[in-house]
Write a structure and sequence with these properties.
The complex is a heterodimer of chains A (653) and B (187). Chain A has 653 residues and is mainly β. Chain A contains two helices and 38 strands. Chain A starts with 111 loop residues before the first helix and ends in a 7-residue tail after the last strand. In chain B, helix 4 packs antiparallel against helix 5. Classes of the chains: A mainly beta (653), B mainly alpha (187). Chains A and B meet through loops of A and helix 5 and helix 6 of B. Chain A: It comes from Stylosanthes scabra. Chain A: Its main location: other. Chain A: InterPro entries: Beta-fructofuranosidase_N (IPR021792), ConA-like_dom_sf (IPR013320), Fructan_Metab_Enzymes (IPR050551), Glyco_hydro_32 (IPR001362), Glyco_hydro_32_C (IPR013189), Glyco_hydro_32_N (IPR013148), Glyco_hydro_beta-prop_sf (IPR023296). Chain A: It is an enzyme of class 3 (hydrolase).
């Protein structure tokens, strides 16, 4: 069933077509996330993200920490291009369009077939137009999202609303909150919900006022007994919180789900910035109408810039269940997460929370918020968790923007989507990472499966996996390494010093890259490698070099079109000695979510192929290492569509 | 003389009572188209559902069933399903505790997972929606309930389900309720 390509055929030659790698401006729309308000007994999570108002053009800056990701290598090329001002900047929000394009970027002749293929089958995305917060209530999961009802580009942001019984099959509802008051006329941005003990739901969200000042507003359901929570009422005396002294009027947004303290007060935190130090402010309240600002910040990290979409929640150190947002005590650590406006990257850190003064410190200051671990090393932003009291798990949503042009988005009629929700657990094996994993309900989409065992992939070869259509898949793969006898190489020295992801899958080294080619065509003219690269292998006895394993996704050959972003994303991933190398991939048309080692490192990518679409998309194994054979075992499921559609209300309701 | 008269009277009264009660009893449990001499609204509505006998029996035997209010009939039916589902869920959970068979345990656990939201949210919401005249939402909830019951049913091969008749009956009840609500939707 599995064929072999010519052993000697060079694999994955460097791209031969011109790729524009300009300064990538990944400006994203505000996200709406509502955070669920936690009730002591219940946790309702509501996340919505507030997008940032910034006047400056955003510069994406890649950090080059050894430990850190190698995402998005940016090479300033020599070409003379004018900086095109992305949409949104004039209105004081972060740029929402991709400004890697310049006036000299050739635009591709997209056909309607190519564009319609891009729409995903089982990821949440708007019916149309733009989106960029979750809650479980009376048997329904709610998602509120930043939505532009008029266009597939950013603007006119209101609260879109959708419900689901199972986090997978979503039904669109009418918009929940529109911008109709002075305190939110310029944007009904992210917020969070808290479920009160008496069953009431309270929502805090950031509004951009008629003066474009960021304030926090209160809203609540018009009818809390309505399982669909269709209608919402804004508190008449909004805003309930305005920027305090010392905080800029446009550096104050995204209130979190509240958590309860031993002094019988709720706490809410918001992101901000002072002198380029990102920080998290804490407010206390008993009634969600009156608030006191704490003297101390929850935490602050110099040089990280504005913190958007702050998220703060406990995790159990025994790593087996999710915790209510108010949980605390021995055996509990707290995660602090921020979306960095400057780089459009989501960072998190694990640490300890001191409820006595509402402060938090990271376990490892070198891995502090904004300088350490990322939730996702790909195209991913404005994420937010909620506590699902129904199944006692913490669930993470992430917003994935488009990496193509606005013009293409307008033609498609939609832009951006949400990841499949992921459970979040503390990784007790490493103690330093969180584990993310797609919610189990995704299994309800499974159709047929194919299994492959110990498929041998020799160096420099590609092995097709004959599974039929390859655009909607759930792939589990394990890799075993066989050191080739001819070399006794214990480390990488003689094969150059390729560390980490390298410039992509075409760059060969002794012990990598190897992995899977997804959304690839038979001719391999378009392909997306997801791979591991090891720094060394074999260490028989005397060598003291430890192996570092990198997990990467290479978009550089994902499409022939020049007007889409094509970067290499990745990071090191801890691999324990008793673990096999494993990855799980969710492939859904133009999005691929990749999970390594049970979710220790995750990468989301967008791909926009022109040829590897519909029936032409295939799946392959590949091994571009020089010194090792690979034996891969896989189980691959075809996934059905989730048929996300408007709620079937029938006639007059 | 007097004794004979009172005895006769007693006998007449007794037999009258006997006849009366027999008539009452028989009229209560009479078959639809018999002693009442024609279909009542319950019959008319039940004829439009896939399981006439079941529908009629339930609605006629419940003293609370309104005679001329289809919405009330739908409510009774949904309540019935809810009671049945709660009962079945308890039964499943009992079986779960007792069974040593691992495969059966998994199947039952799956069914419990299917029944819990049905009992906890879906049917109560269908009931409330009906009460409030939100027939579309009620219809949606009922079909959701059906999906869950179906998913549980599929876990077992035909004859070997320990849930035996219960699931089967509930499927029918759901079909009946669904049909009544559709009548309401269509006015």
């Amino acid at each position: 069933m599995v064929g072999m390509k010519d052993d000697d055929a060079p694999l994955l030659e460097p791209p031969s077509y011109y790729v524009v790698e300009a300064d990538e401006d990944e400006d994203e729309e505000g996200r709406r996330r509502s955070r669920p308000l936690k009730l002591r007994g219940y946790l309702v999570i509501f996340g919505s993200m507030v997008f940032l108002l910034s006047m400056a053009a955003l510069i994406i800056y890649q950090q080059s920490h050894d430990y850190d990701d190698e995402a998005a290598k940016i090479e300033n090329n020599d070409h003379n291009y004018k900086k095109v001002f992305p949409r949104g900047v004039a209105e004081g929000v972060s740029a929402k369009s991709n400004s890697f394009l310049s006036e000299t970027t050739p635009s591709y002749n997209w056909t309607n077939a190519m564009l319609s293929w891009q729409r995903t089958a089982f990821h949440f995305q708007p019916e149309r137009n733009w989106m960029n917060g979750p809650l479980f209530h009376k048997g329904w999961y709610h998602l509120f999202y930043q939505y532009n009802p008029y266009s597939a580009v950013w603007g006119n942001i209101t609260w879109g609303h959708a419900v689901s019984r199972d986090l997978i099959h979503w039904l669109y509802l009418p918009e929940a909150i529109v911008r109709d008051m002075w305190f939110d006329i310029n944007g009904a941005w992210s917020g969070s919900a808290t479920l009160l003990p008496d069953g009431e739901i309270v929502l805090l969200y950031t509004g951009s006022t008629d003066q474009e000042v960021q304030v926090q507003n209160l809203a609540y359901p018009a009818d809390a007994s309505d399982p669909l929570l269709l209608n919402w009422v804004k508190y008449a005396k909004n805003p309930v919180i305005v920027p305090p002294p010392g905080i800029g009027p446009q550096d104050f947004r995204d209130p979190t789900t509240a958590w309860f303290g031993p002094d019988n007060k709720w706490r809410v935190t918001l992101g901000s910035m002072v002198n380029r130090a990102g920080l998290s402010l804490v407010y206390k309240t008993t009634d969600f109408i009156n608030y006191e600002l704490n003297d101390h910040y929850l935490h602050e990290v110099p040089g990280t810039g504005m913190w958007e979409c702050v998220d703060f929640y406990p995790v159990s150190m025994n790593g087996s269940v999710g915790l209510d947002t108010s949980a605390n005590g021995p055996g509990v650590k707290h995660v602090l997460k921020a979306s960095l406006d400057d780089t459009k990257v989501d960072y998190y850190a694990i640490g300890s929370y001191f409820v006595e003064n509402d402060t938090w410190i990271p376990d490892d200051p070198d891995l502090d918020v904004g300088i350490g671990l990322r939730l996702d090393y790909g195209k991913y932003y404005a994420s937010k968790t909620f506590f699902d009291q129904n199944k006692q798990r913490r669930v993470l949503w992430g917003w994935i923007n488009e990496s193509d042009t606005e013009a293409a988005d307008e033609r498609k009629g939609w832009a951006s989507l949400q990841t499949i929700p992921r459970t979040v657990l503390y990784d007790k094996k490493t103690g330093t990472n969180l584990l993310q994993w797609p919610v189990e309900e995704i299994e309800s989409l499974r159709l047929k499966s194919d299994e492959f065992k110990h498929v041998l992939v020799k160096p420099g070869t590609v092995v097709p996996l004959h599974i039929g259509t390859a655009t909607q898949l759930d792939i589990f793969a394990e890799f075993e390494i066989e050191l080739l006898e001819s070399e006794g190489i214990l480390n990488n020295k003689e094969n150059g010093s390729v560390v980490g992801c390298g410039v992509g899958a075409a760059e060969r080294s002794a012990f990598g890259p190897f992995g899977i080619l997804a959304i690839a065509n038979d001719q391999l003219s378009e392909l997306t490698p997801i791979y591991f690269r090891l720094s060394n292998y074999g260490n028989n006895g005397t060598s003291t070099t430890s192996t570092t394993t990198s997990f990467c996704v290479d978009e550089t050959r994902s499409s022939k079109a020049p007007d889409v972003s094509k970067l290499v994303f990745g990071s090191k991933v801890p691999v324990l000695t008793d673990e096999k190398l494993s990855m799980r991939l969710l492939v859904d048309h133009s999005i691929i979510e990749s999970f390594a080692q049970g979710g220790r490192t995750v990468i989301s990518s967008r791909v926009y192929p022109t040829e590897a679409i519909y029936g032409a998309a295939r799946l392959f194994l590949f091994n571009n290492a020089t010194d090792i054979n690979i034996k891969a075992s896989l189980k691959i499921w075809q996934l059905n569509s989730a048929f996300i559609r408007p709620f079937p209300f029938h006639l007059a309701q | 003389m007097r004794n004979k008269a009172s005895t006769t009277l007693t006998l007449v009264l007794l037999s009258f009572t006997l006849v009366l009660s027999t008539t009452l009893v028989s009229s209560q449990s009479s078959s639809p188209s018999s002693s009442n001499g024609g279909d009542d609204l319950i019959d008319q509505i039940c004829k439009k559902t896939p399981f006439y006998d079941l529908c009629s029996t339930i609605l006629h035997s419940n003293p609370l069933t309104p005679k001329s209010d289809p919405k009330g009939m739908a409510l009774i039916m949904v309540k019935n399903i809810e009671d049945n589902a709660t009962d079945t869920l308890n039964y499943i959970q009992d079986l779960l505790k007792k069974t040593p068979d691992q495969q059966l345990e998994q199947q039952l656990a799956f069914c419990a997972e299917s029944y819990i939201p049905v009992v906890k949210y879906i049917l109560p919401q269908a009931y409330d929606a009906l009460n409030q005249g939100k027939f579309g939402f009620a219809s949606y909830c009922i079909s959701d309930a059906e999906k869950e019951l179906d998913a549980c049913n599929k876990k077992f091969d035909g004859n070997q389900s320990p849930l035996g008749d219960r699931n089967g009956i509930m499927q029918k009840l759901v079909d009946v309720a669904s049909a009544i609500v559709k009548l309401l939707l269509n006015g």
